[in-house]
Every structure is written in structure tokens, then in C-alpha cells.
Amino acid sequence: MDKKGSPDKVAEGRRKANSMIVPAPGSEDRSVNFKISEGNASSSETQPPRKQPQKLSRNRRARSLYGVSPCCQFGPKGTILDNSSSFLSTGFCPPLPHEKAYDYDFGRDMKHNLALIGSVAHGGIKQVRIHWLLDLVSMTTKKDGSLVYNYDKLDDLLLFLFEQELKPGFELMGSPSGYFNDFENKTQVYLWKDFIKDLGQHFVAEYGLSEVMTWNFETWNEPDCHDFDKVKMTVKGFLNYYDACSEGLKEASPLIKFGGPGAGCDRPGHNQYADGLLQHVVNGQNYFTGEKGVRIDFLSYHRKGDGFSKNILNGEIEIVNEIKKKYPSLANKPFYNDEADPLVGWSKDEDWRADATYAAMVAKVIGQHQNMILANQNSPIPNFTLLSNDNAFLSWFPHQFTQRTLTARFQMNNTNPPHVQFVRKPVHSVMSLLSLHGDQQLKANFTVEDNLSQRVRVQNDSDLGVLVTRHNYDGLGSPDSWQTTVMVYQSMDTKTDPQEISSVELSILLVPPNPNGTTVTVVGYSISNNLTSNPYAMWKNFGSPDFPSVSHFTSMRQAEGPTRFLNASFIDFNNPHTVKFNIRTPEVILLHFCANALQQPDQVTNLAVYNVTAGKVMITWSDSCVNTKCIWTYEVIFQLKYTRVMIRINDYDIISTSFYFTPPEEKDDFVEGTYRVRAVDYSGRTGVMSLPVKYGNF
């Protein structure tokens, strides 16, 4: 982001103009033009209907029928923005042995990683789909033969997720204390149903039904891959297991949703489990009720790219067409691609995973799905619901940046005791940019000049694409406001050469609901392979040190991005405005248009300070109660213990909700004190300070 500067000073330089040009270095290879209209992208809603404003509790975590809610000390004065988009998910798998999954899932490194994932702006990632969760449950047998389950370790992980405002994608995968090993054994099948019922009832009692009913409970992951550990799982046993899961959850509450088959190995001739499940839910006999057919609330498949974005979409369409043909009654079920990664194999060392190449490809895949599936009146996938990457893993040496992760992990074994530090990769930052999108997709007429100087429409599957959304402000006396978001991406998938440059001209007619006296500010962000938003390039410039210094980490974090390159204001709403800029391969550019709000941002909440090592801390907070996405930066304020002076410690602007404080002295005395955070909006207005949090020994 930009270096720290007063938003008020920046505002003095804003131009009230109809045209602006933002040049990028290099020659222009092609000219692109697009216009934005105020009509929807299709005649039907392209996103789920907006939710009613959420009632918030004053308790930090409310365990009740009403679920788990963040604490808004001042409460929302308007509408909480709806982030019900289809791409807010990630996931990971613990390593072998899975009986020790707790050590990985709830280890210090993963907690650090999850805190950073939770810091994606505005809930840009909400779900973490985790394998082998049931191996976190232990079981004992009482004298009367009944089974007693201990959920403490599972609750540890879930509560930590909730503290980061994340929720689980819950695969019913694993065997408590290794007890269940044969799902053709009738006794075990009935005991499994009772266990799943007990699990569901525990969750409802602990976290609230309205929370649990939003979780995606899913079958054992990729059953046709035969990764069942020590469990005997034939096709028949898998169907018995499915019925037991379905009926157990239903007995806990019929509102809990359950789907599958979570299929990723279902190639022709090797799809006995996935296809067998669909055959069973349509025509089979319920193991417990004897009725024909079993419920399935969503269909989940894994279609990855093999290095090409188009393969993801084509793979989804292919399996949906097959389902329509063989099982027409399932054709309109919600469809999940909950492992939609560009390439199979999370640990593969790939340079493109380190920089904006990966980020731009993720934006491209999401843009293609929005334009070709969700906004398409004749969509080949009529109920597409979830698109998830599987990239919440922990990278390892010497591939800190180049594995399929959102963050780069540095295992600092040169200190006593050893510790870890993380750097956010561009793919993490692009999720923050995507979070700035609104809840209604708009039409964009996107054209390019061909060899005959004729303007032709840019196809939705091209390397250059656009996604335009709007947020309609419908509250009064709130920090919320009317917004339009334009994202332009240029991606050649995993390739970076040749580096094509496109000259883009945007024509947009701004129509805020109350134009009189309104000012619309546009802020432009970029994620590219320029050094200013490429911590991987920064690290390589330092010689790729195994153990970066404090100054190295500071420089890399200043380059985490996104980079802000544009800030201007408009007051004319009768004529279209033109914005011109260049975009490279790979790059994502996002323009965020915000009408001035009536009030400053609301209060930052849920401030937490985590120890990293001696003299280093990570601060995280929540933006869920700030009630605006038009955030220029957050100011992290520190008051050294036994002093009265409060200083801003982030000397560069940030829009994600985390910050590392690493003073050069590297002593605890220099990080012990009181921390506060407040938001600053595009107009330069500061919100109320968060509640103070003390760190250290006072």
C-alpha cells in the first residue's frame, strides 16, 4: 500500500474531472474499451437475495439459538454489507498420521496462518474446509457398553475459527479414537448414526442452530481415491455410512445441510463411489427408514485446472451435464466445486504460485464463473453455489512462496526458541480486493480493437476480463453508502511471457441514489509483479535468505499489497466519466467508486494481540462492524506501558485486518503496552477507536 499520509492531504489533490489517465510503463499492445450500464447482468438476480441486517450481541460470542455473532460495541446504524458470494472459501489437509491432526490443525503455525486468513478484508474468506476433523474427537466406552465422546480438541479449533470470523467446511471424515473401522458392520453403522446425531446436537447446543445450519457438512473427501486410513470402506459401506450421516444430522436438526460426494478421482471407470452415491440417493433404499431415496442437499465435486483456467469451468460443465442426463432429478441441486485449484498437488514447487500470476488466475476463474455461470440466464450449471480454492496449507522450506498457499511461512530456526513468521502472498491480497465487490452484478460492454480497427466484443473466456458490481445503500444515518466496483484482470493462466500490455478505457455513468450534494470518490488498486506489490520478488532481491532480518520482513510486508494507484473525486452525475489505464500480464486492477457517507466508519472490534517471538507481535481485528467497505486505511495505535503517548505504528496504509509490529530493538519491553485500532474512510474521516487491549506484563 502507499506510505502513510494524511487522507486529508491526499484529498486536496483530488480532481473533479470527467476524464483521467493513469499511465503504466511500457508500450501499449492493444486497446480495450468498455461501458458499464446500470442494468443487472441478467434479468434474474446474479447473487442470492440480500440478507436483513443482522442483530448483534454485546457479548463477544453469543452461544444461543441465534448463533455466534461478533460484538459491535456501538451497534450497526445501517445495513451490514452482504458477502454471500460463491467464492469465499479455502481449505487444507493435515499431514499423516491423521490421528495427530490436532497438533497440526491447532498448532501455533496453523493458528498464525488462520489468523491471517481471517484478516482478509470484509470477510473475503469465510469458510475453511478441513479434512480429518473427526480425528480430533476422542471416545471412551462406559461399563454399560455405551460410548462417550470428547469434543474438546475439536471445539478448540472451531472456537479459534470463530474468533477469526471463519466457519468450518465440515467433512464427516475420520474415526474417533480409531473405533469405527467397518461400515458393513450393522452395529457400527447404527453407532455411527448415533455419533453423528450426538455431534450435531453438541454443535447446536454449543454454537446455536442458526450458526450450524450455515455450515456445509459433507461426505468423506474424494472416496474414489480410497484414502480411508484404517477404515474398511467398500462402496456398500460408503452408502451405509452416507445414510448414517444423513439420518444422524437430521435427528440433530432437519435444518442442518449435508451433501457430497466430494469427488475428485471420479474419472471414467473409477467412479464407483461418486456415481454409486447419486444412484443411491435417487433410487436406493434408505438403510434406516427403508424408503426409496435419500436426501442430498448439495452436490460437491473437485474440478481443477491442470494449469489452465478454462479446464476448471469445462470440467464442471461436463460433470453437471452427465448428472442431468443420468439423474435429472438432481439437475437443480446446489453445485459446489470445493477444490477448484489451478493445479493438482498443493506442495508442488511452482514459481507462478508465488506472485501475481496466481492471484490474477484466481481473479480470472472467479470472473469467468460470475460472467458465464452466475450471470448467464441460460447457465449450463443452473444452481452454482460454491467455488473454493484449497490453499490454506502451511508452506515449508525451501518453498516458502511457491507452494499452493495464501501465505509464505518462514521457519525461523535461528532463534532460541525457534519461531515462525508469515508474509501474505498476492493471492491473499486479491481476496481482499474481491471482497470490495457489491451484491449485484452489472452489465459491462467490453470491446477490443481487432486487426481491421473494428471494435469486437471481448469473450468471457479471454485472458482479459472484467467484473462489475454495485452495492445499493439502503440505510439512513450510517457509514454505508452507494458503491460500484470494477475489476479488470489480465491473466495468461500460469504463463507470464510474453508480457502483454493492454490500454483500457472505461466509460461509466455514475448514478448514486441522491446525487445532490454527493461526491463519489474512486480509489484504484493494483496487484502485479511490480516490486511494490510482490514480496516474493523483494525476497529474491535480498538473496532469498533462509532467515530474513527484521528489515527484510518489514520491506516484504510493505510490498504485500494491494498497491493504491488512483484517488479522485466526481460531482458530475449527468455525463459518463472516462478512466484510462494500462494493465499488464499478469495483473488485477480494481476501481472502487464510493459515494460519500453521512457518517464516519463505525468501531473496529475484536482486537487481539498475538506473540510471535521476543519483541514481535501480530495484531488482528474485525471489520464486520465498521459498516463500510470504503476504507482508506486502518491506523494501529500503540501506547507503550507506563507512558501516556499514543503513536501510529503502521507507517504504511493497510486494508486487511492484521499488522505485524516488529520494532528493531527486538525486546519485549518495546512491544508491551496498550493497542487500539481505528478505521479511516475515503473521505479521511476516522472512526471510533477500538476498545483497548493490553499486551505484556504491567
UniProtKB/TrEMBL annotation:
One of the protein's GO biological processes: carbohydrate metabolic process
Biased composition (Basic and acidic residues): 1-15
Domain Glycosyl hydrolases family 39 N-terminal catalytic intervals: 89-564
Annotated InterPro entries: FN3_sf (IPR036116), GH (IPR017853), GH39_as (IPR049165), GH39_C (IPR049167), GH39_cat (IPR049166), Glyco_hydro_39 (IPR000514), Glycosyl_Hydrolase_39 (IPR051923), Ig-like_fold (IPR013783)
Keyword field contains Hydrolase: yes
Position of the signal peptide: none
Domain Alpha-L-iduronidase C-terminal span(s) in chain numbering: 605-695
Claim: Hydrolase is one of the keywords in the record: yes
Keyword vocabulary terms for this entry: Glycosidase, Hydrolase
Pfam family for this entry, one: Glyco_hydro_39_C
Composition-biased stretches (Polar residues): 39-49
EC number: 3.2.1.76
Active-site residues (renumbered): 222 (proton donor)
Gene3D superfamilies cross-referenced by the UniProt entry: Glycosidases, Glycosyl hydrolase domain, family 39, Immunoglobulins
A Gene Ontology molecular function term of the record: L-iduronidase activity
SUPFAM superfamilies in the record: (Trans)glycosidases (SSF51445), Fibronectin type III (SSF49265), Glycosyl hydrolase domain (SSF51011)
Stretch list, region Disordered: 1-61
Recorded superkingdom: Eukaryota
Family: Belongs to the glycosyl hydrolase 39 family.
Protein name (Swiss-Prot/TrEMBL): IDUA
Organism this protein belongs to: Mytilus edulis (Blue mussel)
Organismal lineage: Eukaryota, Metazoa, Spiralia, Lophotrochozoa, Mollusca
